[in-house]
């Protein structure tokens, strides 16, 4: 008997259905195998950090470690997190932990900031970077690293007191890539991009993963950078890095932006339109694009990333004032914001457990037909 989260089904109906199968088999005199997992001992009697460490060492996917972490620290939050993937949404602060890094040498189960403590480079001097997934493909909730909250949990953006969702622009549903951020980067508002003369949007640099797998919120994946699009979002410089999940079965085919055009025809054009139009349903004008909306190549994209990484280094070492950005971290030794594990634990313990739940509004499924 397996009780799991199945698409379109509630936990309860899955359970009832499973029981129905078992009782029918018993009625017919057929044998039925049952595996009973008693997790009480694990959850209640083993120190949580040790348990998380063990889960991590077993190389479970980052999302599983993350869910286990959420369950142990914020059980109510976890229910909301799971609900995000089934019926309704209950958004909350999710605090990152080291287990999400997928780096063996750092699997001690410590709390971290996904903004500051996950290394930018997956492999130094190659086009391989770590990416923190914020919004899984085909979803609408605008999840993002909260730069102004200590330890920068991933949470849903709020606007006018309401959870923020992006509109569906025909023919798309939600985001058309796994969307997220490169850790340890910062589009500094004090820096005007030399190409577009626009100041940075004050966030880590954004990434669109064009891989075929739909990732989950909070997952850390390794990506190969392919190019960049210069979005000017309400006058701010907002680079969109195009990348592919290294684990994608076709990843070796993609080595520069031209390969996207070749192997995923229409995707880049759709990406331009998506970014131009995504705020139009909210009554905002079309976004502008630098370089005439042309994608820059891999080398250019890597230079942009390097530059944003340098601004982040200035930020984390307090050479530039980041205003409201929380720079608390646990791994940057020369940062005045580096804190002890005790301090970090007290931050996590005192963090609000969840934001009041609300179901997804009906209009999130609306389709907008906009003329080009
Ligand atoms: Mg941005």
Could you characterize what this model shows?
- By secondary structure, the chain is α+β, with helices and mostly antiparallel strands.
- It has one domain (37-357): Inorganic pyrophosphatase (Inorganic Pyrophosphatase).
- It contains nine helices and 13 strands.
- The strands form four sheets. Strands 2-8-9-11-10 form a five-stranded mixed β-barrel. A two-stranded antiparallel ribbon has the order 3-4. Strands 5-6 form a two-stranded antiparallel ribbon.
- Strand 1 (121-123) and strand 2 (128-135) form a beta hairpin.
- The longest helix is centred in the C-terminal third of the chain and has 19 residues, at 298-316.
- The model is unreliable at 1-5 and 74-107 (pLDDT under 50).
- The protein binds magnesium ion.
- Residues 187, 201, 203, 206, 238 line the site of magnesium ion.
Task: Give me a quick take on this structure.
The protein has 372 residues and is α+β, with helices and mostly antiparallel strands. 27% of the residues lie in helices and 16% in strands.
């Amino acid at each position: 008997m397996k009780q799991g989260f199945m698409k379109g089904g509630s936990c309860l109906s899955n359970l009832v259905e499973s029981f129905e199968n078992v009782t029918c088999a018993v009625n017919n005199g057929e044998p039925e195998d049952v595996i009973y997992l008693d997790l009480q001992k694990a959850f209640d009697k083993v120190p949580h950090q040790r348990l998380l460490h063990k889960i991590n060492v077993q190389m479970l996917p980052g999302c599983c470690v993350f869910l286990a972490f959420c369950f142990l620290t914020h059980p109510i939050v976890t229910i909301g997190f799971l609900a995000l993937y089934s019926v309704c949404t209950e958004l909350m602060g999710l605090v990152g932990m080291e287990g999400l890094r997928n780096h063996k040498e750092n699997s001690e189960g410590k709390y971290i900031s996904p903004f500051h403590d996950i290394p930018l480079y997956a492999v130094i001097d190659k086009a391989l970077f770590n990416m923190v997934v914020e919004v899984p493909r085909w979803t609408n909730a605008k999840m993002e690293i909260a730069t102004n909250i200590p330890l920068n949990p991933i949470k849903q953006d709020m606007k006018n007191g309401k959870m923020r969702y992006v509109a569906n622009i025909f023919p798309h549903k939600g985001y058309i890539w796994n969307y997220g951020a490169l850790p340890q980067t910062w589009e500094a508002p004090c820096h005007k991009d030399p190409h577009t003369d626009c100041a940075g949007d004050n966030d880590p640099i954004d990434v669109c993963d064009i891989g075929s797998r739909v990732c989950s919120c909070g997952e850390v994946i390794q990506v190969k950078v392919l190019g960049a699009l210069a979005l000017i979002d309400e006058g701010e410089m907002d680079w969109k890095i195009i990348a592919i999940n290294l684990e994608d079965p076709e990843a070796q085919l993609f080595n520069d932006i031209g390969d996207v055009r070749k192997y995923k025809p229409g995707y880049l054009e759709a990406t331009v339109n998506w970014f131009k139009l995504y705020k139009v349903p909210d009554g905002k004008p079309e976004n502008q694009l630098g370089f005439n909306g042309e994608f820059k190549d891999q080398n250019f994209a890597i230079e942009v990333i390097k530059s944003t990484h340098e601004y982040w280094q200035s930020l984390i070492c307090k050479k530039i004032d980041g205003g409201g950005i929380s720079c608390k971290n646990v791994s940057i030794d020369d940062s005045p914001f580096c804190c002890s594990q005790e301090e970090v634990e007290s931050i996590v313990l005192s963090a609000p457990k969840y934001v009041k739940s609300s179901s997804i509004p009906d209009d999130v499924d609306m389709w907008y037909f906009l003329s080009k």
